[in-house]
Amino acid sequence: MEAVAAPAAARDPSVRELADMQLVARAQSSADAEAFAELVRRHQARVRGMLLRLCGGDGALADDLAQDVFLRAFRALPRFERRAEFGTWLYRIAYNVFLNHTTRTRRFDPISERTRQREPAPRASHPDRGDVRRDLERAIAQLPVPYRAAVVLYYLRDVSYAEMAEILGLPLGTVKTHLHRARARLREIMLGWDETDDLEEATP
Length: 204
Known about the structure:
The chain has helices at residues 20-30, 33-54, 59-76, 86-105, 110-117, 129-141, 145-156, 161-168, 172-202.
Protein backbone atom coordinates (compact mmCIF):
# COMPACT_ATOMS: atom_id res chain seq x y z
CA MET A 1 0.00 0.00 0.00
CA GLU A 2 1.41 3.31 -1.04
CA ALA A 3 2.17 5.81 1.67
CA VAL A 4 0.09 8.95 1.50
CA ALA A 5 2.25 12.04 1.46
CA ALA A 6 1.50 14.54 4.18
CA PRO A 7 0.16 17.85 2.88
CA ALA A 8 2.85 20.47 2.47
CA ALA A 9 2.85 23.17 5.10
CA ALA A 10 1.58 26.48 3.88
CA ARG A 11 4.53 28.59 2.79
CA ASP A 12 4.83 32.10 4.15
CA PRO A 13 5.05 34.20 0.99
CA SER A 14 8.16 36.25 0.45
CA VAL A 15 7.68 39.94 1.08
CA ARG A 16 8.59 40.54 -2.56
CA GLU A 17 5.48 38.60 -3.60
CA LEU A 18 3.10 40.73 -1.54
CA ALA A 19 1.15 43.76 -2.76
CA ASP A 20 1.81 47.12 -1.15
CA MET A 21 -1.30 47.03 1.00
CA GLN A 22 -0.43 43.55 2.27
CA LEU A 23 2.98 44.83 3.27
CA VAL A 24 1.36 47.82 4.96
CA ALA A 25 -0.95 45.52 6.92
CA ARG A 26 1.98 43.41 8.10
CA ALA A 27 4.00 46.46 9.06
CA GLN A 28 1.05 47.94 10.95
CA SER A 29 -0.07 44.81 12.78
CA SER A 30 3.28 43.43 13.88
CA ALA A 31 5.79 46.23 13.26
CA ASP A 32 7.29 43.99 10.57
CA ALA A 33 10.59 45.70 9.69
CA GLU A 34 11.09 43.45 6.67
CA ALA A 35 7.72 44.47 5.22
CA PHE A 36 8.49 48.17 5.61
CA ALA A 37 11.96 47.68 4.14
CA GLU A 38 10.33 46.16 1.06
CA LEU A 39 8.04 49.18 0.74
CA VAL A 40 11.10 51.43 0.88
CA ARG A 41 12.88 49.33 -1.75
CA ARG A 42 9.90 49.56 -4.12
CA HIS A 43 9.29 53.27 -3.80
CA GLN A 44 12.60 54.93 -2.96
CA ALA A 45 13.71 55.50 -6.57
CA ARG A 46 10.40 57.12 -7.53
CA VAL A 47 10.29 59.27 -4.41
CA ARG A 48 13.87 60.41 -4.96
CA GLY A 49 13.15 61.11 -8.64
CA MET A 50 10.18 63.26 -7.70
CA LEU A 51 12.22 65.17 -5.12
CA LEU A 52 15.18 65.53 -7.48
CA ARG A 53 13.02 67.40 -9.98
CA LEU A 54 11.27 69.45 -7.32
CA CYS A 55 14.74 70.43 -6.02
CA GLY A 56 15.91 71.52 -9.47
CA GLY A 57 18.36 68.65 -9.89
CA ASP A 58 20.11 68.97 -6.50
CA GLY A 59 20.89 65.31 -5.85
CA ALA A 60 22.33 65.75 -2.36
CA LEU A 61 19.27 67.67 -1.19
CA ALA A 62 16.92 65.13 -2.80
CA ASP A 63 18.72 62.33 -0.93
CA ASP A 64 18.44 64.16 2.40
CA LEU A 65 14.74 64.87 1.89
CA ALA A 66 14.05 61.29 0.77
CA GLN A 67 15.53 59.96 4.01
CA ASP A 68 13.25 62.32 5.93
CA VAL A 69 10.26 61.14 3.88
CA PHE A 70 10.73 57.48 4.77
CA LEU A 71 11.43 58.28 8.41
CA ARG A 72 8.17 60.23 8.60
CA ALA A 73 6.32 57.49 6.72
CA PHE A 74 7.57 54.87 9.20
CA ARG A 75 6.42 56.97 12.15
CA ALA A 76 3.05 57.76 10.57
CA LEU A 77 2.34 54.25 9.26
CA PRO A 78 0.15 53.23 12.25
CA ARG A 79 -2.17 56.14 11.33
CA PHE A 80 -2.33 55.31 7.62
CA GLU A 81 -5.98 54.35 7.02
CA ARG A 82 -5.41 52.76 3.58
CA ARG A 83 -8.08 54.87 1.88
CA ALA A 84 -5.51 55.93 -0.76
CA GLU A 85 -2.79 53.92 -2.46
CA PHE A 86 0.39 53.66 -0.41
CA GLY A 87 2.36 55.39 -3.18
CA THR A 88 -0.08 58.31 -3.26
CA TRP A 89 0.18 58.69 0.53
CA LEU A 90 3.97 58.53 0.30
CA TYR A 91 4.13 61.20 -2.44
CA ARG A 92 1.95 63.43 -0.26
CA ILE A 93 4.50 63.09 2.54
CA ALA A 94 7.33 63.78 0.07
CA TYR A 95 5.67 66.94 -1.21
CA ASN A 96 5.03 68.17 2.33
CA VAL A 97 8.67 67.50 3.27
CA PHE A 98 9.77 69.52 0.25
CA LEU A 99 7.38 72.38 1.11
CA ASN A 100 8.60 72.41 4.70
CA HIS A 101 12.17 72.69 3.43
CA THR A 102 11.33 75.58 1.11
CA THR A 103 9.47 77.39 3.89
CA ARG A 104 12.36 76.94 6.30
CA THR A 105 15.15 77.91 3.89
CA ARG A 106 13.30 80.07 1.33
CA ARG A 107 15.65 78.48 -1.18
CA PHE A 108 12.96 78.18 -3.85
CA ASP A 109 11.19 81.47 -3.14
CA PRO A 110 9.53 83.40 -6.04
CA ILE A 111 12.32 86.00 -6.25
CA SER A 112 15.06 83.45 -6.85
CA GLU A 113 12.82 81.65 -9.35
CA ARG A 114 12.22 84.83 -11.35
CA THR A 115 15.98 85.38 -11.43
CA ARG A 116 16.59 81.87 -12.77
CA GLN A 117 13.92 82.31 -15.44
CA ARG A 118 16.04 85.00 -17.11
CA GLU A 119 19.05 82.69 -17.47
CA PRO A 120 19.42 81.17 -20.96
CA ALA A 121 20.07 77.46 -21.20
CA PRO A 122 23.39 76.18 -22.54
CA ARG A 123 22.57 74.73 -25.95
CA ALA A 124 24.47 72.34 -28.17
CA SER A 125 24.89 73.21 -31.83
CA HIS A 126 23.14 69.96 -32.79
CA PRO A 127 20.96 68.95 -29.83
CA ASP A 128 20.01 65.30 -29.46
CA ARG A 129 17.17 63.80 -27.42
CA GLY A 130 19.34 63.91 -24.31
CA ASP A 131 19.93 67.64 -24.78
CA VAL A 132 16.21 68.26 -25.26
CA ARG A 133 15.38 66.30 -22.10
CA ARG A 134 17.99 68.22 -20.10
CA ASP A 135 16.59 71.51 -21.42
CA LEU A 136 13.07 70.42 -20.46
CA GLU A 137 14.11 69.43 -16.94
CA ARG A 138 16.00 72.71 -16.54
CA ALA A 139 12.88 74.59 -17.65
CA ILE A 140 10.76 72.60 -15.17
CA ALA A 141 13.17 73.62 -12.41
CA GLN A 142 12.43 77.28 -13.21
CA LEU A 143 8.68 76.96 -12.73
CA PRO A 144 7.05 78.27 -9.54
CA VAL A 145 6.79 75.45 -7.02
CA PRO A 146 3.03 74.69 -7.42
CA TYR A 147 3.37 74.51 -11.23
CA ARG A 148 6.57 72.48 -11.01
CA ALA A 149 4.91 69.95 -8.71
CA ALA A 150 1.96 69.56 -11.09
CA VAL A 151 4.26 68.90 -14.07
CA VAL A 152 6.53 66.51 -12.15
CA LEU A 153 3.59 64.45 -10.92
CA TYR A 154 1.58 64.36 -14.14
CA TYR A 155 4.32 63.86 -16.73
CA LEU A 156 7.21 62.34 -14.83
CA ARG A 157 5.42 60.36 -12.11
CA ASP A 158 2.42 59.41 -14.29
CA VAL A 159 -0.38 59.84 -11.74
CA SER A 160 -4.04 60.69 -12.31
CA TYR A 161 -5.62 64.09 -11.71
CA ALA A 162 -7.41 62.70 -8.66
CA GLU A 163 -4.14 61.38 -7.22
CA MET A 164 -2.46 64.72 -7.94
CA ALA A 165 -5.19 66.53 -6.01
CA GLU A 166 -4.68 64.14 -3.08
CA ILE A 167 -0.88 64.53 -3.12
CA LEU A 168 -0.88 68.32 -3.49
CA GLY A 169 -3.81 68.86 -1.13
CA LEU A 170 -5.64 70.96 -3.71
CA PRO A 171 -9.08 70.89 -5.37
CA LEU A 172 -9.15 69.04 -8.68
CA GLY A 173 -9.94 72.23 -10.63
CA THR A 174 -6.93 74.02 -9.14
CA VAL A 175 -4.64 71.14 -10.12
CA LYS A 176 -5.84 71.33 -13.73
CA THR A 177 -5.33 75.11 -13.75
CA HIS A 178 -1.79 74.73 -12.40
CA LEU A 179 -0.98 72.16 -15.06
CA HIS A 180 -2.39 74.33 -17.87
CA ARG A 181 -0.39 77.37 -16.71
CA ALA A 182 2.72 75.26 -16.25
CA ARG A 183 2.56 74.07 -19.86
CA ALA A 184 2.22 77.66 -21.07
CA ARG A 185 5.13 78.80 -18.90
CA LEU A 186 7.35 75.96 -20.12
CA ARG A 187 6.70 76.95 -23.73
CA GLU A 188 7.50 80.57 -22.85
CA ILE A 189 10.78 79.64 -21.13
CA MET A 190 11.99 77.34 -23.90
CA LEU A 191 10.97 79.69 -26.72
CA GLY A 192 12.86 82.43 -24.90
CA TRP A 193 15.98 80.27 -24.99
CA ASP A 194 15.55 79.70 -28.74
CA GLU A 195 15.20 83.44 -29.34
CA THR A 196 18.37 84.08 -27.30
CA ASP A 197 20.25 81.51 -29.40
CA ASP A 198 19.03 83.13 -32.63
CA LEU A 199 20.11 86.57 -31.43
CA GLU A 200 23.56 85.32 -30.44
CA GLU A 201 24.01 83.63 -33.82
CA ALA A 202 23.00 86.82 -35.67
CA THR A 203 25.33 89.05 -33.63
CA PRO A 204 28.67 89.63 -35.45
